[in-house]
Every structure is written in structure tokens, then in C-alpha cells.
Recover the amino acids of this structure.
């Protein structure tokens, strides 16, 4: 999308709200409770997979009560329009040794599973004390590579979605809700 997109065209792409702000808030509370119960006072390292999970991670880190450090990895999945090409690049890695940490990965969405399976392989090879995967959204119909998710907030049908961190060509990440993207020209 060009930076000079018209407001009309921008708004027309927001087809309908799938998950409201209130529903997201309630889901964050539940996910945080799960993390708290799982770690029972032990400190965690929350790893946010950028860019898509930055909003989710910022809400999760404020909802958990266990001691929590935060770190970021930036992974780029290459898209042709709204379809993932399967090419993944680690643009920014963690710059710490995770072998002393209980690692909690926070991901925005599991689609084909390719991105997460790569991240999981990489992080597990670094021997963290434990490893948990929390996903905001899951589109199981699209799975190509199996992924073991410990907790998913919402399972959704095979729609391309935007908002709450998720983008289409870098726009819409700032929507406070999750919406279906209008793929019609
Ligand atoms: P994967 O296909 O599971 O590897 O998904 C890779 C990445 O594609 C996700 O982490 C998202 O950043 C992005 N993605 C997948 N589906 C959607 C979607 O519906 N909306 C926006 N981004 C998506
Ligand atoms: Mg992502």
C-alpha cells in the first residue's frame, strides 16, 4: 500500500469487527492468569515476536503478576498481498543467554505455523529453563507445519485479519480491535 492511501480506501478495507476491545481485555486477563498459575511466582522472560505481537505483549506484561523481564525478536514473514510465501528472516535476535530463563513467547497469530516452528527450534536449542508459547490468534485451517501452543486466546476461521498489532502492508496495527480485512479490490 502506498503511504498516500486515501482515507476512504483505508477505511473500506476494514470489513467488520471480529473481536471487540472488551473481548480482547477479558482474554488478556485469562491468559495472564494462566501464565501466573503456570509459573507460580517464578520470574519469566516474556519474548515478544515483533512486530505483530507488540500490542498483545504490552497488555500481557501489565496483566501478569510474576516477576517479568521483556525482550524482543523481530521476524519478517514475506507476504505476497495477504498470502504468506513461507520465507522467514530473523531480522533481530535476542542478545542474551536464555539458559537461565523461563521463556514465554508471545505471538500475534499462528497461520501456517512456519514462523513459530522456526522460532521454537531456535530458542529450544538455546536450552531455556522452560518454554511456553502463548498466541493471541490461531487459524488452524491454515496450518502447514504443526506447532504446540500452550495457550491461545482466540481461534478464528481462515480470514485475513488486522488490528491490535496485526497489519496489512504495515497499516492497521493501531486499531484497538481485531477486524476482518476486505480483500476485494
Ligand atoms: P505463519 O504463516 O504462521 O508463519 O505466520 C506468520 C506471520 O504472518 C504471523 O506472525 C503474522 O505476523 C502474519 N500473519 C498471518 N496471518 C495474518 C493475518 O491474518 N493478518 C495479519 N498478519 C498475519
Ligand atoms: Mg507475527
Amino acid at each position: 500500500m502506498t503511504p498516500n492511501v486515501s482515507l476512504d480506501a483505508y477505511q473500506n478495507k476494514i470489513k467488520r469487527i471480529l473481536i471487540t476491545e472488551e473481548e480482547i481485555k477479558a482474554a488478556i486477563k485469562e491468559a495472564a492468569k494462566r501464565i501466573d498459575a503456570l509459573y507460580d511466582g517464578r520470574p519469566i522472560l516474556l519474548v515478544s515476536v515483533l512486530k505483530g505481537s507488540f500490542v498483545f505483549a504490552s497488555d500481557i506484561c501489565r496483566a501478569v503478576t510474576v516477576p517479568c523481564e521483556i525482550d524482543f525478536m523481530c521476524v519478517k514473514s514475506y507476504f505476497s498481498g495477504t498470502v504468506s510465501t513461507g520465507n522467514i528472516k530473523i531480522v533481530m535476535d535476542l542478545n542474551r543467554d536464555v539458559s537461565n530463563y523461563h521463556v514465554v513467547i508471545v505471538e500475534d497469530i499462528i497461520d501456517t505455523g512456519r514462523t513459530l516452528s522456526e522460532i521454537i527450534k531456535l530458542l529450544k536449542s538455546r536450552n531455556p529453563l522452560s518454554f511456553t508459547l502463548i498466541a493471541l490468534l490461531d487459524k488452524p485451517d491454515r496450518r502447514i507445519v504443526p506447532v504446540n501452543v500452550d495457550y491461545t486466546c482466540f481461534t478464528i476461521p481462515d480470514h485475513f485479519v488486522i488490528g491490535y498489532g496485526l497489519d496489512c502492508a504495515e497499516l492497521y496495527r493501531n486499531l484497538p480491535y481485531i477486524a476482518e480485512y476486505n480483500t476485494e479490490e
Q: What stands out?
A: Strands lie at 14-19, 44-50, 68-80, 83-92, 102-110, 130-138, 151-155, 161-162, 178-181. The chain has one domain: 14-178. The chain is about 25% helix and 35% strand. The radius of gyration is 16 Å.
